[in-house]
Amino acid sequence: MGSLPRGMSVEIEMILKIRD
Predict the structure, then answer these.
(1) Model pTM?
(2) How many whole angstroms separate alpha carbon 6 and alpha carbon 12?
């Protein structure tokens, strides 16, 4: 995820945490 912006990566992490 190094190519993705920090904001986008943060959103993905939050979604993954919510799903988990």
Answers:
(1) 0.26
(2) 10
Query: What is the C-alpha to C-alpha distance for residues 20 and 7, in angstroms, rounded to an integer?
Result: 20
Give the Cα separation of 16 and 10 in Å (integer): 10
Distances (CA, A) of 16 to 1, 2, 10, 11: 14, 17, 10, 9
Q: Based on the number of CB atoms within 10 Å of its own CB, is 6 exposed (0-12), middle (13-18) or buried (19 or more)?
A: exposed
pLDDT digits (tens, 9 = 90+) for 1-20: 566 666 678 888 899 999 87
